[in-house]
Design goal:
Elements: H1 7-15, H2 20-35, E1 44-49, E2 53-58, E3 65-66, E4 76-81, E5 84-88, E6 99-100, E7 103-104, E8 108-110, E9 123-125, E10 128-135, E11 138-145, H3 149-152, E12 167-184, E13 190-203, E14 206-210, E15 222-226, E16 240-244, E17 255-260
Parallel strand pairs: 2-3
Antiparallel strand pairs: 1-11, 2-4, 4-5, 5-8, 6-7, 6-9, 9-10, 10-11, 12-13, 12-17, 13-14, 15-16
């Protein structure tokens, strides 16, 4: 099992690492920019659950789903039948400038991947960016507004000072075969997640382990959802996220993996009540503080 360097040695090693602290500073700045993008998490302005049958949406009061006042009065109708969501025009037809994946909107069935939204069609008009999400047995319209109050009122993020003592080398132990865990979410749903192995590391002489999620086998990225004891005071209460690359020998062989807890970031739910975030599995709830990374946003 790999043992982290002492704080003194770690600081010296980081200083020789070609600018580790500069990398952390640049990463933090980029993270803030991502949040402020027109379709970033700060733009999230609504999450409206669909009911069976027709769900009209627009800014007018007679719609079932009300969009920000900057939107058109009547944009369309989302019809939910079983596991199928169809986009249909309102009584007056689709308004000009209403696009789906960059093309003029037409009546059509909308593709929705369960619990993953990357490939779901984007509906855009003006400053609004919307798409239908699928969570458990429920469907909802997620609404983003590039001029939301959270975007226009953004005043920066809060961080702990970088600390190289929390940049550790962990041992990677693959599951053979890979496992599937059920991940619970803040909205009470759950979904199956592929877990290829676990990372085992030490802090202050004690061993701990974390299980990551493999969201997309085609992308060399691991996704850790975890919580530590700072969640009771200075960090977001539900969890924080940590993304890493793959271990040095791949997912299927034992190897090493760098866990830089200075890159712990808040989940979308820390910024907006309209997100649907995963919760850490029991084995990822650490009984120790990790006083590094991002702190609470609203305090």
């Amino acid at each position: 099992m790999a043992v982290p360097l002492s704080p003194v040695l770690a600081s010296a090693a980081a200083a020789q690492d070609g600018g580790w602290q500069k990398e952390i500073t640049e990463w933090r700045a980029q993270h803030a920019l991502e949040l402020q993008k027109p379709d970033g998490w700060l733009a999230l302005a609504g999450l409206e659950w669909l009911e069976p049958g027709d769900n009209s949406f627009g800014s007018a009061k007679d719609n079932k789903i009300h969009l920000p006042s900057s939107g058109r009065a009547h944009l369309g109708v989302l019809r939910l039948e079983g596991d199928t969501v169809t986009l249909n025009p309102p009584a007056g037809g689709f308004p000009a400038g209403f696009l789906i994946d960059g093309k003029p909107v037409q009546a059509q069935t909308l593709h929705t991947d369960p619990d993953h939204d990357k490939n779901n069609p984007r509906l855009t008009i003006g400053t609004l960016n919307m798409y239908v999400i699928h969570r458990g047995e429920r469907f909802a319209l997620r609404i983003k507004d590039a001029k939301s109050a959270a975007v226009t009122g953004f005043r920066g993020l809060k961080w702990y000072p970088p600390n190289p003592a929390y940049r550790v080398t962990a041992q990677w132990i693959p599951y053979s075969p890979q496992k599937t865990f059920t991940i619970a979410t803040l909205i009470g749903t759950s979904y199956p997640a592929q877990v290829p192995g676990w990372a085992e590391f030490t802090l202050n002489g004690k061993a701990y382990r974390l299980d990551p999620i493999l969201e997309d086998p085609a992308v060399a990225k691991l996704f850790f959802v975890l919580r530590d004891t700072t969640s009771a005071s200075t960090t977001y209460g539900a969890c924080r996220f940590l993304y890493t690359g793959f271990p040095d020998h791949g997912l299927e062989k034992p190897g090493e993996l760098v866990l830089d807890f200075n890159r712990l970031e808040n989940p979308p739910c820390a910024y907006t009540p309209y997100a649907t975030c995963p919760l850490p599995p029991p084995q990822n709830r650490l009984p120790i503080p990790l006083p590094v990374g991002e702190q609470r946003y609203h305090e």
